[in-house]
Write a structure and sequence with these properties.
Length: 768
């Protein structure tokens, strides 16, 4: 007999949607839209659409448009949704929600993740049904009709944000704006990273905790003062719906809204509320609206957290429960009850956490026990202060000071936890088979736990009824075993995932796609981690958004040596970011620079930054090597020569030869004609199966004489898509082709990885 028919139907529906998305890829938004199929980067368009959402970003105003009529390349195209970026400094036209506007501008297409571990912008906007971005050059309001309700909510949100920053300052005010209003544009990046790395980043997002506090808090208050079920439910639901509209309808907030409506619907109709049915219904509704949300981190984390509490919570609670009724045991059981909830959530969310964030913060189990109970105080004081402040500003400001105290406490405990050894375990991204195996074990343990629990319940009932022949109940030892094995399984999963990267045999070299710049990661045969250059001239915060996530996805928490070939920004600015952010990011043990005579001001500045952040700084000259004789692995400096007379810059780039058994790779920085000629004359240059071409494949790099000596079979070129310099140059590509060299560029392939056992070479490209 099926006890939860609606829940079962929802689960089956979700399975079908998951198959459509992940296996058959038959969901409409996975395919190019009508406009996306016609246009390319930079195509001029004219469009008319209705403003549905306005979001203020750091440098632009992001406007979402619905029901768009687009004129492009002589065609008239209908596009359901579009995103338009308006630069307030160039276009002063004010638009409101509900306005019909005409936009003239240029198309920009969303990027896929171009490196392992990087954010997939295209997939993110596909989940919102948006396929094309337009940079506005001219905006005209065709109809000033506005959605009064949405405009009021926008005004209220703006007023509250100003109030928070006025009374709490920029730092704490913007933090509270993120917590209460979902407004993250002014959030302090260091604080955001501090929360995320310590496993409490969920506090900065509108979650079910917020929605439950507001909806159930109001509903419960109304019921306690005698308001009947129906009016209390309608009022509570209406307030929660308006709040959801004000903050923006995210997956987590929609889930909480649906579950709240089911809860009060059960109360109003006199039915029992079933959490699992409510959760399944919410997931089914969201995935019926947009199936692609199944692949979304927010969806998986939001629903997984509730499922973890319901499914795994009892097993972990049984493991951590103290028998006996003494006051001490009661206190410990209450404390451990919170701990068991935190552990249960972490166990179920192990897969999404490793897949999306590549790390486990073990101390978050304890931090969440401390910080979550204080959230009702933060939200209560915040909402009370904002509401009161609309009428009595001083009184509202006074109430908001309670938020400052709690947020200060959060910063203190997170900073302290981050300084404890083992505060972060970098695992890398797990393989699909390991994830399947992990959740199969968890499912089997749940089955054993609940079956054993039911058996014990029947035995206890029979014992109480003194049924003849009934065996005496054996106690809770067997019930505690599944919870213990679940925790052990998570530990094994973490260890296996990390070992899969750190214990990989052979050598791996990855040329990252950093746009117009360069960044090369090398994993040695003994697990040593090396990086050569790291910067970009056209990708902002390249260290934060491209280099670091890629390294974390490969289980890199420490770089043993970072080599900087020369001081151009497109080779060093990302490394400068990593050096400054080591406390919460990737540790750099040694920074290797060219000899002093080739150091420019930029390299000296980075050297000072490294020393200030605890990184050892050394220089390397031609002929010196970093060697591991045990593995027959070395990185040798081939150029520049001391006293060559070269000025700091491209010609004086550090040239490195990487060797592992019969494998060899030449890294030439931005070396061109003059530098290549000196290298050829030095007698140090030999044959290398793999060449990283100089200066992004420029016209003056990889001369015929140089290539005749190196004789590369594979050439890798790092250059930005549609860059202003025309890299790689056609003449360079022809010279490489003439010697039978296979060429891989980051423009076309994204990140390119080479793997070698010392004899053979395997090439992997990022899936674009």
């Amino acid at each position: 007999m099926i006890k939860r028919p609606l829940c079962t139907a929802c689960i089956l529906f979700l399975a079908v949607q998951a198959a459509r998305v992940c296996i058959f890829q038959s969901v409409g938004d996975l395919k190019p839209s009508a406009l996306e199929s016609v246009v390319s980067e930079g195509t001029p368009v004219t469009l008319t659409g209705t403003v549905s959402r306005i979001e203020e970003k750091a440098k632009v105003t992001a406007v979402s448009l619905d029901d768009n009529a687009v004129s492009a390349l002589g065609q008239q195209i209908s596009e359901p949704k579009l995103l338009v970026y308006i630069n307030p400094d160039e276009i002063e036209t004010k638009v409101n929600r509900g306005n019909v506007i005409q936009v003239e501008g240029e198309v920009s297409l969303f990027d896929q993740a171009r490196n392992p571990g990087n954010f997939d912008q295209k997939a993110y906007y596909q989940r919102q049904g948006v396929h094309v971005l337009v940079w506005a050059e001219k905006v005209t309001v065709k109809s000033a009709d506005a959605d009064e309700l949405k405009e009021f909510l926008t005004w209220l949100r703006s007023q509250w944000k100003e109030m928070l920053t006025e009374y709490l300052g920029e730092y704490y005010g913007n933090t509270m704006s993120a917590i209460l209003l979902g407004e993250k544009s002014g959030l302090d990046e260091e604080m955001k990273k501090l929360y995320q790395k310590n496993g409490i980043g969920h506090l900065l997002a509108i979650s079910g905790l917020h929605m439950s506090f507001i909806g159930m808090g109001l509903y419960g208050t109304l019921r306690r003062i005698g308001v009947p079920f129906v009016p209390a439910g309608i009022l509570g639901g209406a307030v929660l719906l308006l709040y959801t509209m004000m903050i923006g309808a995210g997956v987590s907030s929609i889930r909480a809204l649906i579950m709240f409506l089911v809860r009060i619907g059960a109360d109003m109709t006199g039915r029992d509320y079933d959490l699992l049915t409510s959760l399944g219904l919410a997931a089914a509704v969201i995935c019926a609206w947009q199936p692609l949300y199944i692949t979304d981190a927010g969806f998986q984390l939001s629903f997984g957290a509730i499922l973890g509490i319901w499914l795994l919570g009892p097993a972990i609670g049984e493991l951590l429960r103290f028998d006996g009724k003494s006051l001490i045991n009661k206190f410990l059981n209450k404390l451990l009850g919170s701990m068991s909830t935190s552990i249960a959530v972490s166990l179920l969310l192990m897969g999404p956490l490793l897949c999306f964030y590549f790390e486990v913060p073990p101390y978050s189990l304890f931090l969440n026990v401390l910080v979550i109970p204080a959230m009702p105080l933060v939200m209560g004081a915040g909402l009370a202060g904002l509401t009161t402040g609309l009428v009595f500003p001083s009184a509202g400001g006074l109430l908001l000071q309670a938020c400052r105290g709690v947020l200060w406490m959060y910063d203190v405990v997170c900073t302290a936890a981050g300084r404890i050894p083992g505060s972060r375990i970098i695992t890398g991204k797990p393989g699909l088979l390991w994830l399947i195996a992990y959740y199969a074990v968890i499912a089997a343990l749940c089955f054993i736990f609940y079956r054993t629990k039911e058996k014990h319940r029947r035995e206890k009932k029979d014992e109480q009824q003194k049924v003849p022949g009934c065996r005496k109940k054996q106690g809770g030892a067997v019930l505690r075993l599944p919870g213990a094995v679940m925790i052990l399984s998570a530990m094994v999963m973490t260890a296996i995932c990390r070992a899969g990267y750190t214990c990989e045999s052979g050598i791996r070299v990855t040329v990252l796609d950093v746009g117009q710049g360069e960044g090369i990661y090398i994993r040695g045969p003994s697990g040593g981690n090396y990086f050569v250059d790291g910067g970009s001239s056209d990708v902002s915060a390249v260290g934060t958004y491209r280099i670091e996530p890629c390294l974390l996805s490969c289980a890199v928490d420490t770089l043993d040596y970072v080599f900087l070939t020369h001081g151009d920004e497109d080779h060093v600015n990302g490394i400068a970011e990593l050096l400054e952010g080591q406390e919460l990011g990737i540790r750099i043990r040694n920074l290797v620079l060219p000899m002093e005579e080739y150091l420019d001001e930029k390299l000296m500045e980075i050297g000072r930054t490294a020393l200030q952040n605890g990184t050892r700084v050394v220089t390397m000259k031609a002929g010196q090597s970093l060697e591991n004789e045990k593995d027959d692995f070395s990185i040798t400096c081939l150029a520049p020569e001391s006293g060559s007379g070269l000025e700091p810059g491209n010609a004086a780039s550090l040239v490195l030869g990487v060797h592992y058994k019969a494998f060899g790779m030449l890294l030439t920085g931005d070396c061109e004609l003059e530098g290549e000629q000196m290298l050829t004359d030095s007698g140090r240059l030999g044959e290398y199966p793999v060449l990283k071409t100089g200066h992004h494949g420029s016209k003056n790099s990889s001369s015929e004489e140089f290539l005749q000596i190196v004789k590369p079979a594979v050439a890798l070129i790092s250059a930005g898509t549609d860059n202003w310099y025309g890299h790689p140059h056609e003449e360079t590509l022809e010279r490489l082709s003439d010697i039978g060299c296979r060429v891989y560029t980051t423009q076309k392939c994204g990140a390119v990885s080479l793997r070698s056992d010392g004899d053979s070479i395997w090439i992997e490209r990022c899936e674009l």
